[in-house]
Amino acid sequence: MTAWPAFSRQEWLFSLKSFAAAMLALYLSSRFGLPRPFWSMMTAYIVAHPLAGHVRSKSLYRLCGTLLGCAATVVLIPSLSGSPVLLSLALALWVGACLCLSLMDRSARSYAFMLGGYSAALIGFPLVDAPASMFDTAVARTEEIALGIVCASLVHSIVLPASLAPSLLGLVDRTLGDVRRWAGDLLSPGADDELGARLAQDRRRIATDITQLRLLATHVPFDTSGLRWTQHAVGELHDGLAALTPSLSALEDRLAGLRDATGGVPNRIARAMARNSAGLGADVSTGALDGVREAARLEGADQRNSSWVRSLNIGVAAHVDELVAGWRRCHALHVDIAAGLAGHAPHPKRGKPSRPSVLHVDRGLAMRSAFTVVLSTCTACAAWIFSGWRAGSSMAMAAAIFCSFFATMDDPLPGMHKFLVALLWSMPVSAFYILGIMPLAHDFGMLVLCIAPLFLVVGGYLARPASSLTALGMFFGVAGTLALHDIASADWVSFLESNLALFAGALIAARVTAIVRSVSSEWSARRIQRATWRDLAGMAGTAARPGRALARDAFAGRMLDRIALLVPRTAGSPADHGGQAAQLAMRELRLGASVAVLRQQRHLLPETPVRELLVGLERAFLAQATESPRRLDALLPAIDRLLALCLASTACEPAVSALVGLRRDLFPSAPSELQP
Questions:
Q1: Neighbours of 334 (CB within 10 A)
Q2: Measured distance CA(660)–CA(51) in Å, rounded
Q3: 510: exposed, middle or buried (C-beta count within 10 Å: 0-12, 13-18, 19+)?
Q4: Disulfide: which of 268, 284, 474, 661 matches 295 by Cβ 3.0-4.6 Å?
Q5: Residue 93 contacts by C-beta under 8 Å, 6 or more apart in sequence?
Q6: CA gyration radius for the chain?
Q7: Nearest residue to 480 (alpha-carbon basis) of 440, 535, 423
């Protein structure tokens, strides 16, 4: 960072707004006589983000987290002030519990839980030896942080606010374009197996985009534009896109099954495909989709075809129906969002209200992360207590913050080491400012001029994802030192003690993490896959316990989230040829959709065969989850018998489609004739 960087206009604007908010917070804190005004300045940078909606949501959740941490401090310190060891253990356990809740939440509000944990560490550990000043210190820290939050929110919301709308609408347009291209390729003339390689990347990108849309949607209520009035439509659009994916994947699989069974797509369907020269358009009520659906229904009713071919055609018709309905819904919601941004009244809610997204949560890894932060913090506290180090509280604080900050990564060590290097580089810079520059700043204007060059450059690098971690390490090193020191009485001894304590705490956190917490991407991918099989077993085994079931759309949302998690974890694995992990996850997504439809239709089916099939599926899925797979051969006759019974009734066409899906996904090499 020695050379003056060539930042873009947006990066300079973000840096200038962040610096202005920080200086406003610093000035007001000084005018109000708060003891550590640099806490306000540091908070203004921590909640900063190029998008105003993110700043406002982070500000709200950070304020809630700070109040939560302050309340915990006020409760714990008076109760345990007579025993520093028990107090340190209680604070460490509090940080661990809050981190565990944060990792299991996976929404924007998870920030509040994490802040509630390490805010208690920031406030509480310096008071272990001085509990008498507990209340005043807790209130002062809360006021300083709250002032920084308010200043950041005001500046980023008023001064050229960057709306979330362009990013969100661009993401929606890209996702709809990928869906349109996928469906158009499937229904184009000459679609065959060679499309697989070309479409694999699109499918993975759709899963990633849908997960990203969910994350952006959590900030929509805080946006500065009219986008916040479209919150319901954005949530429904996310659900609609998630529901489209299993329909498209199943349609692709059924067409492939027809090619396997008959050597090609039936002529009626092929002619309907040939009329699909432009792929999907905005209106899917006419054109090739209607033609493909009608052609597939005719083929499904043609008694000259074998039972299996008829079943495949019924499946094609069913999934085209789902695609038509889903696309109409998504297109209408897209229009509603655009109209809302233009200032028109929002459209009445379409269909059922959207439910909160059900996302993948690894509770075991969350508890392991919580244990890591507790062990790291207790280790730092033990070193502090037994050594009697005057600056030891900073070591405990650093251990708690460091473990919390990197807990979302599979292997936090590379990020921790990068941060540690930046922290080391910040020490001479901090010494230069605290011991050389700050004593010469006799008024606020001179102080601003002194710190402006460093923080304007660091702010620009914070806006760049590639350099944000290094810039954050430099920022925390300098700003944290300013916040923890009384500038008027700073000297070399106190400076070295506090900075060495911070570095020692970070180092303890890194070493404990390396022993206890670091896991490989492959390990995480296997846990994601086992969790999927457990969900499938829960869906199949709920014939008599419906309360345990995952709804189809909820399962689709969770599976797409898992695909988005699997893709970066398996992309560099030599065993993952051609994105095999994502393909298997897509197969499991189809399995979940099939099981959900079968359960919905079970009241129309013969009771004994469907119950036996669901029990067999539950046992097979549980065996997959425990990595002791059972032979599935016994399930094939059960599926075929039930399928033959369902073919005799037109009211059971959805169940036929679901059973075809189970047969194709569990037995891709099964013969083209149903077993008697």
A1: 18
A2: 47
A3: buried
A4: 268
A5: 374
A6: 29
A7: 423
- Residue 102 half-sphere exposure, CB side, CA atoms within 13 Å? 26
What does the alpha-carbon distance between residue 285 and residue 406 come to, in Å, rounded to a whole number? 49
* pTM attached to this predicted model: 0.82
Averaged pLDDT, groups of 10, the chain, 676 residues long: 68 93 93 88 90 86 90 88 87 95 86 90 82 81 90 91 84 84 69 58 75 80 78 83 84 84 77 57 52 74 79 85 84 83 61 58 91 95 87 89 88 88 88 80 86 91 87 86 64 80 91 88 83 86 48 72 72 54 79 86 84 88 77 81 82 84 86 70
Signed CA dihedral, 443, 445, 450, 452: sign only: positive
Instruction: Give the integer Cα–Cα distance in Å for 262 and 471.
Output: 60
Print burial letters for 602-613: b (CB count within 10 Å at least 16), e (below 16). beebeeebbebb
Whether 124 and 77 have beta carbons less than 8 Å apart is answered as yes
Exposed/middle/buried for residue 278 (C-beta within 10 Å: 0-12, 13-18, 19+): exposed
Q: Which of 658, 561, 629 is nearest to 315 (CA)?
A: 658
Other C-beta atoms closer than 10 Å to the C-beta of 362 total: 17
Asked if 155 contacts 20 with a C-beta cutoff of 8 angstroms, the reply is yes
CA angle 624, 630, 635 (to 5 degrees): 105
Interaxial angle between packed helices 110-124 and 134-158, expressed in degrees from 0 to 180 and rounded to the nearest 10: 140
